[in-house]
Design brief:
Ubox_domain; globular; ligase activity; mainly alpha; about 220 residues; zinc ion binding; E3 SUMO-protein ligase NSE2; Znf_MIZ; 8 helices; Herpes Virus-1
Length: about 220
Amino acid sequence: IPFNTIDTALSSLKNSQSYINSGMDIATKIAFDLVESFNDEEDINNMEKVMLEYAAMDRELNNYIRAFEETVNQVKREKPENIPDLENLVQEKLTAIESENSDSDLQRNEKYMYFMDQLKEMKKQCNVNETIEQIDEDIAVTRSQTNFICPITQVEMKRPVRNKVCGHVYEEEAILEIIQSRKQKKKKVRCPKMGCSHVDVKESDLVPDEALKRLIDSQNKQ
């Protein structure tokens, strides 16, 4: 069995995921633009449907890759004398995997969850901007700017990232520098936000906070 050929095919399949990820990133940015421009809610809801369609494609691709990998590993372990029908074996494995799927799987897609979280933040921030004239402007600005300050550098953030575990936000470069420094000493990183009990901040926990970045940029333009 030409396993090198199979490995090459699997590598190509995995590369296809980058196109799905790029599509989800573009859909996310479009949705944020729509919220900022106070577009029709229906347009924004349509982008959510697009994200779910991408999540479905991502699941389908992952299922196929998993079925393929498990089948190949099984054949490698068993080392049959006769070359098996890989296509049928993969299809059987794929059918078994897909039988475990549910609609809720799509809503647990990491990029979809990020999209919904950031969309919620964008709507919240834009609603604040809509009503900002109804309250004392100095108080409003002060409240907003306290969220702009990095707990590490104590200056306004340029590239804020949010910790998925505890929800706190930091300047990307600052938190990554701490993580790398502590990693070299084989020590864990405690969340720099005062009062936070999270004691093991990892780079994989961090996601860009696009909603906050857009708000900071908007305030600075004003």
